[in-house]
Amino acid sequence: MKTAFIHVNYNNSDLTINCIRSIIDNDSDSDIIIVDNNSDLSEKEKLTTWKHDNYSVQNKVNLIFETNNLGYFGALNVGLEYLKGNINKYDYVIIGNNDLVFNESFFRKLNQVQLEDNIFLISPNIIKKNGIHQNPYSINGTSKIRLFFYYIYYSNYTIAKIILLTTKILRIAKSEQNRKGFDKTQIIYAGHGSCYILTRTFFKNNFFLVDNSFLMGEEFILAKQIRDTNGKIIYIADLIVTHDEHSSMKNIPSKVVYGYKQAAFKLIKDIY
Questions:
Q1: Domain containing 254: what range?
Q2: Nearest-10 Cα torsion for 48, 51, 52, 56
Q3: Of 188, 199, 262, 270, which sits 20 to 30 A from 226 (CA to CA)?
Q4: Residue 236: which CATH number?
Q5: What pLDDT digit, counting tens, does each position of 179-230 carry?
Q6: Cis peptide leading into residue 253 (ω within 30°)
Q7: Which residues of the chain have pLDDT under 50?
Q8: At 5, which helix (H) or strand (E)?
Q9: For 172-217, where are the alpha helices, taking DSSP H only?
């Protein structure tokens, strides 16, 4: 099995290095592409220094430094462009955040996977550090009731704050829970955006990701892209990836994050 990994770095190079180590330690034959989304100079230097000081990874890790922040899928597309001439040599291309950790069983079980030709994408069992399972992100799409709520929530930042405050006061908000169906391998509507495994069949029918959202909403945009090219997404419960969720967004003000989500909702409201 030959795999390539593409991860996006933005001002948290320590997480990126940790992610790279988890890959190299368990599959020394993988190729790794890190796309830096115009991080601070100190973070860029941390990556280049680490690569320079670790001779064993120099031929396996490729660093691409962008002069502008291209957003999440925009940066992943830069990595895909880098692989374009050699894409046929890879059985899988794993794409995602840099706050992921892969273990030995991930590679062993991925090597055992057998897929039908219409499977374009594998969504792994993504588990947060607190043990919460984040997949399957959506098994059957979004209900009309939830979509109606989203219309209200994303209509205005002030309204969103009022809704959040009200649910907190009335204790309506649910505590964080595992996604339903996390223990069952199955065909799903959309997978969690932090990690995807693109198959050979994906690249026979697509190549680049649709990147019209800067950040957020990628789950449903990619799901539509796959459906539009007659593909399916499978969630595989045995493929476990550890996720330190939203590490790259901890320093972004909440109003800015809401703006990203609001813009994404305008793009995906008709494709839920």
A1: 3-268
A2: -170
A3: 262
A4: 3.90.550.10
A5: 999 999 999 999 999 999 999 999 999 999 999 887 788 999 999 999 999 9
A6: no
A7: none
A8: strand 3-9
A9: 200-205
